[in-house]
């Protein structure tokens, strides 16, 4: 069972991630890097929605595996897009290299915190 220290440390890392992404936009006066926050916040949703829509049955283990795989594919797409979008913006000359680096590191901290939170606080299923 995760305790108060886990919640405090996860919120600290999440705050650092948001700070890096916001600073990457504010310091260089180009707010395109804030799109990374949207991709990392939306990234876990397909996996969660498809996991609920699959409705696994107690008697049949393989029911709905295509739906779960589709959710994982969309989640992976959003995670890769969160890294590739700042790289694309840097390559096109819209943002600087420092803004790209801060945006990618901050985005990975945000997504890592979301994943860690779901791993620590998911409910145990009893059969």
From TrEMBL:
Highest taxon above the source species: Eukaryota
Compartment(s) of residence: Membrane
Transmembrane intervals: 7-25, 31-49, 70-89, 95-121
Ligase listed as a keyword: no
Sorted UniProt keywords: Membrane, Transmembrane, Transmembrane helix
Membrane topology according to the record: Multi-pass membrane protein
Pfam family of the protein (one): Vps55
Predominant location category: membrane
UniProt-listed GO biological process terms: late endosome to vacuole transport via multivesicular body sorting pathway
The keyword Glycoprotein belongs to this UniProt entry's keyword annotation: no
Cellular component terms (Gene Ontology): Vps55/Vps68 complex
Family (UniProt): Belongs to the OB-RGRP/VPS55 family.
Name of the protein in question: Vacuolar protein sorting 55
Source lineage: Eukaryota, Fungi, Dikarya, Ascomycota, Pezizomycotina
């Amino acid at each position: 069972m995760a305790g108060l220290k886990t919640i405090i440390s996860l919120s600290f890392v999440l705050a650092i991630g948001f700070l890096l992404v916001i600073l990457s936009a504010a310091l260089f006066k180009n707010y395109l890097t804030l799109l990374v926050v949207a991709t990392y916040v939306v990234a876990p949703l397909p996996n969660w929605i498809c996991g609920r829509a699959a409705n696994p049955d107690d008697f049949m283990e393989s029911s709905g595996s295509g739906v779960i795989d589709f959710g994982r594919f969309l989640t992976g797409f959003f995670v890769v897009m969160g890294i590739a979008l700042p790289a694309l913006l840097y390559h096109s000359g819209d943002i600087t290299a420092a803004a790209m680096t801060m945006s990618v590191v901050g985005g990975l901290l945000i997504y890592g915190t979301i994943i860690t939170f779901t791993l620590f606080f998911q409910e145990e299923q009893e059969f």
